[in-house]
Specification:
By secondary structure, this protein is mainly alpha-helical. The two termini are 37 Å apart. The chain has 20 helices and no strands. It has one domain: MFS general substrate transporter like domains (Growth Hormone, Chain: A), CATH 1.20.1250.
């Protein structure tokens, strides 16, 4: 297979960061138990992760091609490996904030580099959108694995135990292995043709703002913002929802949140096939309408318990199985719109556009988690999840205008 070694490296890099980034929902639940923080206070972990993503992306998006995609990914893996090995020795809330800041900063470099590298190793638009969907589906496989990896280290009989922090030794080892694999993977970046100027100038940042002035890019960043807002508001708070609303034990709450990751991975894999044959606009709009319908059906089920003590998957209420299936319908949106906007631009601008994608995705994730956490604290978990209907509706409208602008741009 052409470029198999670098492709395998990209998949593994995404897998490692998928586990670390999306452990925020699990850690939000754990810090409430271990450090006595409220839902609103715990929600800031998302901000430490996402705002660091946004800051690093904004600072380096126009500079990433000068660093080099491979070198940037190696730096990210090195920092995260060190952070994972240090955290178990620092069992404090501030230390978890610091780790998520490191993970977020590293992921900014990884994502810009992965998105840029896909443009270098794919031959055409169809291969690009297919590769994007597959790599994003593999990201969700990492998220899925993360729930089980973390739950393995949990102890329902001793909720104050800090033994779960030992999971970071394992994650540090995986990140180190990813570093070694990437180091040996060849990547030809000569087509980028950038001048190796070490200085970051105001002109670099001006490029980003000029790119945002393009109508199709502006509509895209609105769509990316609201997609990640709804995805992260659900993903980050599903373990807490399972525990506090559905009354599942902590370990089971984390494990059953894996249904969301599994359904999202499946949705992106299937989308990688469907988008080769059908209109992206028809596929994505249908998916969002089905996602909204699922919210209206699944959230009311939370008030219908089993009436029996819940000890395992077999005792769990129907709501714990149904609501996470929303991932199946939300899944195709993000990789598809990312691919569409990247293939609309020359390859030399992919690093810059990737920076914009990451900045607005990060801002959307932070906003979604903090808003959902505060709604959860003051109005309850069911109301917090009904909130997802708002960004879903905005996304449907945004995709309509994105499609109109794409058509207009193609005719120019």
């Amino acid at each position: 297979m052409r470029n198999w070694q670098i492709k395998l490296s990209l998949f593994l890099n995404y897998f490692v960061f998928a586990i670390l980034l999306n452990s925020v929902g699990t850690v939000i639940l754990q810090v409430q138990r271990n450090f006595g923080v409220s839902e609103g206070s715990a929600s800031v972990l998302e901000a430490f992760k996402d705002l660091s993503i946004a800051f690093v992306s904004f600072l380096l998006s126009s500079y990433i091609t000068r660093i080099g995609y491979k070198r940037a990914m190696l730096l990210a893996l090195a920092f995260v490996t060190a952070g994972c090995f240090l955290l178990p020795s620092l069992p404090e809330f501030w230390a978890t904030k610091l780790l998520f800041a490191l993970v977020g900063s590293g992921f900014a470099l990884i994502k810009m580099s992965v998105y840029g590298t896909i443009g270098l190793i794919t031959a055409d638009k169809k291969e690009h959108i297919s590769m994007m969907s597959f790599i994003e589906s593999f990201f969700m496989i990492g998220v899925l694995a993360g729930y089980f990896v973390f739950s393995f280290y949990m102890d329902d009989n001793n909720p104050q135990s800090l033994e779960w922090l030992r999971v970071y030794y394992l994650l540090g080892a995986i990140a180190a292995a990813a570093f070694v694999l990437l180091l040996s993977a060849p990547l030809d970046e000569s087509s980028l043709k950038v001048e190796q100027n070490a200085a970051i100038s105001l002109a670099d940042f001006a490029q980003m703002f000029r790119l945002m002035a393009v109508p199709i890019v502006l509509i895209f960043v609105v769509c990316a913002f609201f997609y990640v807002l709804v995805e992260q508001s659900i993903m980050s708070w599903l373990p807490t929802y399972n525990n506090k609303v559905l009354a599942l034990p902590t370990t089971l709450s984390i494990q059953m949140a894996s249904i969301l990751a599994g359904s999202t991975a499946l949705g992106r894999f299937v989308a990688g096939l469907l988008l080769k044959k059908f209109s992206w606009y028809a596929v994505l709009t249908t998916c969002l309408l089905l996602a909204g319908a699922l919210v209206l059906v699944a959230v009311p089920l939370a008030s219908k318990g089993t009436g029996q003590p819940i000890t395992g998957w077999g005792d769990a209420p129907l709501a714990a199985f149904i609501f996470p299936l929303i991932g199946l319908f939300l899944a195709p949106v993000y990789p598809a719109i990312n691919s569409l906007i990247l293939t609309a631009l020359p390859v030399q601008k992919h690093g810059l556009m990737s920076g914009l994608i990451i900045v607005f995705s990060a801002l959307g994730g932070t906003t979604g988690s903090i808003v959902t956490g505060n709604i959860f604290e003051h109005f309850g978990g069911q109301t917090a999840f009904y909130f997802s209907l708002v960004p879903i509706s905005i996304l449907i409208a945004g995709l309509y205008f994105f499609q109109k602008q794409q058509t207009a741009t193609a005719h120019e």
